[in-house]
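Hi Y.,

Following your request, here is the sequence exactly as I used it, all 246 residues.
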Amino acid sequence: MAVPGLGTLINAAAIVGGAGLGTMAGHRLPDRVRDTVTDVLGLITLVIGGLDVASLVDPSLTRAVGSRAPLLIMLGALVLGSAVGAAVHLQRRLELLGDWMQRRLSRDEEAGSFSEGFVTASLVVAVGPLAILGALSDGLGRGIDQLVIKSVMDGVICIAFGASLGWGVAAAALSVIAVQGSFTAVGATLGTFLPDAEIATISAVGGVLLLGVGLRILNVRPVPVANMLPALIAGPLLTWIVAITR
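Below is the corresponding structure, written out as tokens. Let me know if you'd prefer a different format.
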């Protein structure tokens, strides 16, 4: 039986390895090639986000809160979460963290570039259904299959990110360790932590955040996605409230 947390460590290693390969290859690629890769990555991120938003029609969610409530729950979660994130300047705090790490770990890159790589990659690899479900499964002793699949996906994604955004992408491994490590600990101590309806809500809200990330990657609009992260907590809470009051 795998040791709890092994899946997340494999995932983190895949991110660092992919970012390293991408960064080394990126310096040898023409700008037009890197720009094209970045555009493709942005489009793929939009597709993944759209697929995650489809969790709004997940049967477990509609059974728990009804067929009309999921969209309102997601709207409420995003409004509440964004208000909290903006109030505490979460986006800026993450950028400052990236700047601090850049000063500590690298003297060759501009702080802004390092921060963008760290924040953008973190929001892609640390937010999503596999990050939550895979980490919970790992903590419950059900295996690391989901996290191994996610590791392969993240490694490929980080090659593309590293080619365009540099070494800051590798620091996203710390975000994955923190987020997935937390859910692994929850799974190991509390057993089945979240019902399927709450998981579906997190996936749908995470999908909206990924759409924002896609817009940032494509330079359509600098959506402050990090400020919206508290919506991932507000979503399941609102789902639980609606479900018990129906």
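Residues 6-245 form one domain.

Thanks again,
Q.
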